[in-house]
Write a structure and sequence with these properties.
By secondary structure, this protein is mostly helical. Helices cover 87% and strands 0% of the residues. α3 runs antiparallel to α4 and α3 packs across α6.
């Protein structure tokens, strides 16, 4: 549903809900009706579903990281961030590096807020590009950019 809501119109989201609901209902029924064959059902149904769920979460994290990087690169092209900043803000290793750096200067809390603000900005940009409530999100984007400037100053001072 999340992919459908992000990429397509509302009708696709409703269809995704129905397509997801039917297997969920079936699997819930299977879980409730497990009896003597519990171990086999568990090993051959529940365990693979668990691994599929973990794989789905990993794929969502990769997609989110890619999206954050793409959107922040757009701000980099406009002069709001440097390319090096984008790499630090959009990767797990980069985030860890800047948090350690900020922590050594007693500004870890400000850096965490800066990282969150950059991610929120990338998500706002994605909503603008998706065409949903564009004027509202453009106003939010302007506020977030001003907030980013203030946070950058707090981290750098």
């Amino acid at each position: 549903m999340g992919f459908a809501a992000r990429r397509w119109h509302a009708g696709a989201s409703v269809a995704a809900f129905i397509v997801g609901l039917l297997p969920a209902m079936f699997l819930h029924n299977r879980w409730n009706s497990m009896g003597q064959g519990f171990l086999l059902d568990y090993v051959f149904v529940q365990v693979p579903i668990f691994f599929l769920a973990v794989a789905g979460i990993v794929l969502l994290r990769v997609a989110e990281k890619r999206l954050t990087r793409q959107r922040l690169l757009e701000y980099s092209a406009a002069g709001w961030f440097t390319t090096a900043e984008v790499e630090l803000l959009a990767t797990l290793g980069g985030r860890r590096t800047v948090l350690n750096w900020a922590g050594s200067y007693g500004r870890k809390r400000q850096m965490k807020e800066f990282l969150k603000a950059a991610t929120r900005l990338a998500n706002t940009r994605q909503r603008i590009l998706s065409g949903r409530d564009v004027p509202l999100h453009q106003a939010e984007e302007r506020q977030q950019l001003q907030h980013i400037l203030a946070l950058r100053a707090a981290v750098a001072s």
